[in-house]
């Protein structure tokens, strides 16, 4: 098992994003996906609802706009960028991968198969990060399910190309399944509401715990300020959860210098 974790940690360390910034609720921006990519931000999030045989993107079911689907806002554009048929300042490739968080808002088990089906064009083209036959293979896009994503469905998938956003507080106290351990072959990302973290010291410990498993860290519902972002970056947290992506991008430029 130790050799597996070593290999997983090596995999995780070779696929870092351009900036350690996650575009939280990316679909609420005036130009979803493109705003993040234009800032070289390679992690975006879409809330999805399975209704009327469509995966709609919206924060609540009352806000559903039937012109805004997971495919129209994200998947078709991502595929076009990778294939070179759609222009983008920032490329999406195996060497510069995009993390796509899909936040399941509707019932998880009911929504899981439609999400798998929607990803088929990217899957068929070999663009998805996937785990099969004991091997984790980096793709141009890593899909991580959060929200109501059913862990059991993720674990049962073989091959697996929709992964799970684990609870960063429970990596040592829980298992993802019988005989299984946490790692990026199940959860390349572990997150939690920052309000549930008691102190900066605990946050730093949780980041280190995640890294022990070769998993990246994220804390959501955080204050939108340079001092807050700097605190997470200083602790080595892999993704700063940002609503103000321009502000976070500017802050990262200063921090990184």
TrEMBL record:
<dbReference type="InterPro" id="IPR051236">
    <property type="entry name" value="HAT_RTT109-like"/>
</dbReference>
<comment type="similarity">
    <text>Belongs to the AIM6 family.</text>
</comment>
<protein>
    <recommendedName>
        <fullName>Altered inheritance of mitochondria protein 6</fullName>
    </recommendedName>
</protein>
<feature type="signal peptide">
    <location>
        <begin position="1"/>
        <end position="17"/>
    </location>
</feature>
<dbReference type="InterPro" id="IPR017946">
    <property type="entry name" value="PLC-like_Pdiesterase_TIM-brl"/>
</dbReference>
<dbReference type="GO" id="GO:0008081">
    <property type="term" value="F:phosphoric diester hydrolase activity"/>
</dbReference>
<dbReference type="GO" id="GO:0006629">
    <property type="term" value="P:lipid metabolic process"/>
</dbReference>
<keyword id="KW-0732">Signal</keyword>
């Amino acid at each position: 098992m130790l050799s597996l974790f070593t290999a997983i940690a090596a995999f995780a360390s070779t696929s870092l994003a351009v900036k350690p910034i996650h575009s939280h609720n990316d679909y609420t921006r005036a130009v979803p996906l493109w705003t993040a990519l234009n800032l070289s931000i390679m992690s975006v999030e879409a809330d999805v609802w399975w209704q009327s045989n469509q995966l709609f993107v919206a924060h609540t079911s009352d806000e559903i706009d039937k012109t805004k689907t997971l495919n129209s806002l994200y998947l078709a554009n991502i595929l076009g960028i990778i294939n070179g048929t759609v222009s983008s300042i920032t490329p999406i490739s195996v060497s510069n991968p995009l993390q796509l968080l899909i936040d399941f808002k509707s019932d998880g088990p009911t929504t899981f198969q439609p999400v798998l089906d929607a990803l088929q064009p990217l899957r068929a083209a070999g663009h998805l990060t996937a785990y099969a036959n004991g091997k984790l293979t980096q793709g141009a896009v890593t899909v991580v399910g959060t929200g109501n994503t059913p862990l059991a469905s993720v674990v049962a998938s073989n091959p697996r190309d929709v992964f799970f956003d684990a609870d960063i507080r429970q990596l040592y106290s829980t298992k993802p399944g019988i005989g299984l351990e946490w790692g990026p072959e199940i959860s390349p990302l572990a997150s939690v509401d920052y309000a549930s973290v008691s102190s900066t010291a605990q946050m730093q410990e949780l980041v280190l715990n995640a890294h022990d498993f070769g998993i990246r860290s994220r804390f959501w519902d955080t204050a939108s300020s340079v001092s807050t972002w700097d605190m997470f970056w200083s602790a080595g947290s892999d993704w700063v959860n940002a609503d103000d992506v321009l502000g976070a991008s500017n802050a990262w430029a200063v921090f990184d210098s």
